[in-house]
Amino acid sequence: MLKHNNSEMLSNDKNMKMCNDVRRKERKLFKRVALALSLAYTYALAYTPTIVMAAKETKKDASDTGVTEVTEGIGVIKDLVLGCVGGVGVIFLAWGLLDFGTAYADRNTTEQSSAIKKVVGGLIMVAVPAILKLLGAT
Fold it and tell me: Which ranges constitute the DSSP H helices of 1-138?
């Protein structure tokens, strides 16, 4: 019976040793895979900007992407946003002028100054697309 227990202990030791060997191999494999993935990630980060910089040589201005479909889409969105800003500016301008008229009729200086601020804000919003064109941003 003692021999049987010793053989069981030996087989358990062999099993433990085999498990430890498998674990070591798994760790080595994990380290290799992690190294390969980190090298691939580094390669992608290092060389992708180079490819993008090479594409920049064909640009005509700041909003040109080098791909005509994308550039046209960005141009449409830019025009839409600038049109909305101008439209909201016209609304503020009209609202400020109406408030100024009613405040002037009531001789209320506090409302007059508030209305003048609305008018100036509306004028600035209306002028934003023209200012951007003068600066060459559009």
Answer: 2-55, 68-106, 109-135
Residue spans of the domains in the chain: they are: 1-58, 61-138
CA count, 13 A, side-chain hemisphere, 50: 5
pLDDT along the chain (138 residues), means of 10: 54 75 81 78 62 54 68 84 88 92 92 94 89 77
Q: In Å, how far are 11, 15, 24, 32, 33 from 27, measured between CA atoms?
A: 24, 18, 5, 9, 10
Output the pTM of the full model.
Answer: 0.49
Other beta carbons within 10 angstroms of residue 31's beta carbon come to 10
Identity of the amino acid at 4: H
Residues in the chain: 138
| Contact by Cβ (8 Å): 67, 110 | no
Q: Which residues of 64-100 are buried (b: 16+ CB within 10 A; e: fewer)?
A: eeeeeeebeeeeeeeeeebeebbeebeebbeebeebb
What is Dmax (Cα atoms) for the chain? 115
